Amino acid sequence: MAISKKFPHTWLIIFVLILISAASTWFINGGEYVEVINEQGKQLVYKPLQNQPQTWQVFAAFYKGFVKQSGIIIFILMIGGAFWIMNASKAIDVGILSFLNKSRKLERFATIKKIGVDNIIITLIMLVFSIFGAVFGMSEETIAFVIILVPLAISMGYDSIVGVCMVYVAAHVGFSGAIFNPFTIGIAQGIAGVPLFSGFEFRIFCWIILNVIAISWVLWYARKVKRNPLKSIVYEEDVYWRARKSDNGEHLEYKTFRSTWISYILIQLALIVFAYYYPSTTLCIGDPKALESLKLVLPVIPVLALLFGLLSIPLILKSYHFFLLNLLLFTILFLIVGVMGYQWYVKEIASLFLAMGIMSGIAMSKTANQITKLFIEGAADIMTAALVVGLAGGIIVILEDGKVIATILHQMSTLMEGTGQMVSISVMYVIQTLINIVIPSGSAKAALTMPIMAPFSDLIGLSKQATIMAYQFGDGFTNMITPTSGVLIGVLGIARIPYHKWFKWVFYFILTLFITGFLLLIPTVFMKLPGF
User: What are the counts of helices (DSSP H) followed by strands (DSSP E) for the chain?
Assistant: First the structure.
């Protein structure tokens, strides 16, 4: 306990950052980028503005940050409430216990035993989420999976950091690799005027390198925690998760209610209606608006509706717990289809999980009042995580209202003048990395920085693809450490990991990725690569 008292609370850390941001508006000149049309076409030109010093606004930053991040905040509350309803059945705990017991049986094979079942599980889960990050830019969606994978990591003998790494870190390493990420590569290449998703061959190579580093790092840490749980930096905070693990549902009474069948029939009828209206789905890998992106037209929803209907019946006969696990599985499958086929975002995903929670309550034979009470309890349990996201949004609000972000970018961009290609790409990389701390949105950063850096690439004879790679890495790595990221703060809040402890753990990992990113940029300058 003595260690935790030496560090300020996460809320206090963020409020201090708001104060520092406000102080910067007194010393940094105001400015903005305006779009002008000249002989070269549309260009962003920096325009100085009068200073907008922020004073009392620091107290309004929480409110405005709450408004700015309202989508993620509501998403967290709805996810927390929905999973609290399902967790009341202990179905997820039963599923985790069953999964681990079956996995342990694989150790009878000498090769698997030598590698380690847990190592295989961690590696496969990380690869799946990394692919999601690289292909359709999974980020906010990771919040929902933290509630599942942190208990899994605890049950495997690890800590909450390993659980967060399996989903959040893996997805953002994939996000950094950005093979077909429409929210970063797609937008940046469109602004730079290069063929959409060209140069993906080298990005696949980069994605492999980054995942080797990430998975190796997590496996090393997981092994250390497994050998000695006290080595975990969040051992004290994980008391919450270990208490849940101790009540793993081994003594549950397995039964099926009449309401379980009612829940099944209601869901199946809804799926039949959806299958009728959406007989085929266009799954997009990349930007759905671009002709060049890979598109697959498949009868996904009818197939999922049929599978859910067939698989649910024997599971309901076994126990409503197994039906709920099946419901969770198909909720995740529909989430993937919704994101890749219908461009779902937090509103649709939150609605999907809310429906899952309500149907879970009905399947458990809970009354409407009981379901409501469980939802409120879940939202209350996760409220701290939601509120801290709003506070973190206040940092961006202060910098935007102070009109200093454009000035910071303009001053940084002047550092590239009169430099060679290698120095220029290095400066671009550093600029993108630093800008990402105050603008965590990849699409917003692309819209702000690429119109400035892409033309500069032409002037010095540097491939625009190299400039895009500098943006890609600069945007991706620091997402896992910046306190202005609502997703990161939300994930840490749900996992109950204090920000200062996460910073301490992840710093050298991010530094390793940063150096690796610099090394991967060198071939883009000195080698002729496909698409560059």
Answer: 25, 4
